[in-house]
Amino acid sequence: MGPTILVTPTADPDGIASHLAQLAANGLAMPRGMWDRARISVPACGPGGEYFGRLIPGRGFYLAMDLESLGITRRIPGVFEQSPMRRVMDALLDERGLITSQDGINAARGSGLSQDVALSKATITTVANTYSSLYRAGGLPVAGTFTNIPGGAAHNKNSTGAWSFGLSNPVSPNRKYLVRLGFTHAQIVNQIILVDLLVAAGNIDTNISTTQAISSVPLTRYASGAGVLMTFEVTTALGATASTLTVTKYTNQAGMTLRATPAVAMTTSAIVQRLQPAALGPFMELQAGDYGVRSVEDVQLSAAMLAGVIALNLYFPLAFIPGIAANVAIREPFDDLRELITETGQVVGCLTGYVFANTTTTGLGTYSLRTVEG
Q: What is the pTM of this model?
């Protein structure tokens, strides 16, 4: 099923260009091997909820239309236009499960093989133009929780705080697909990244500079680790002492152990729910050549920060959705279908959101998920 291209008539070209630049920056910050070696890309929508194109990890953003059609006359670094022929090729090469067309979606919904979930999250305190996690925000579902190190826990739809709490697992051999995500916030947000939270491990102390054993439990989805990213959520506000964080031992997507990330600067005095590191977005830079993480063994800070606790998040990004304005609903149709079950017999994942804030709060957020199985 090829993408449906819809452009909001009232869309502001400058606003669209800013959104495209952000998508390109997100794509460039992700490990290049996700695309070069595993052909993993992530869909994104435009300011009207329309399909816009795909983030290509390590390369930027492929736009599913011409810039001129959006009223943009200058090239945007990291944004690549696609010809009509290329769009046809992309449609043929998209991920495919058992449902491959809109007719298949309609048939599944007509046969009772659909589920829709509505949820709401309380406002959280944020910092403009930085990422925070919505997983531990109060509301429906209730605030999420993390299991402490060593080990942490594998997360799925049954985990406290999972946005997918109301979804059932498909009957074998069916798979589960996310076909639409809708949201609105009482404050404008720049962007929400819908993610599948695979493993989390809490109680990493930022007030010590010795090695801390994480020993994260195995992945239960995306088990190869290809495309699995890591970030760290602040669960107790950080102190004011400058420090860097290094994942001194992790296992990559090929099963290679003793991998290490570059040292990244921590944000001094970072408030709770902010994601670290801040420089690249919610992506911890990996060792050269790696494009995914199976597990994290050890981390170390260069200096004690005097206060603070963080939690490891291992996650797989599912979609990037922009905000437009406060109290304006966005509905993202996933033209290529996002599989929530990638192997027969799996449990639906732990869906949640990372928000790229525009101001100091998110405002009340309401969301809807539409799914089918087949």
A: 0.88
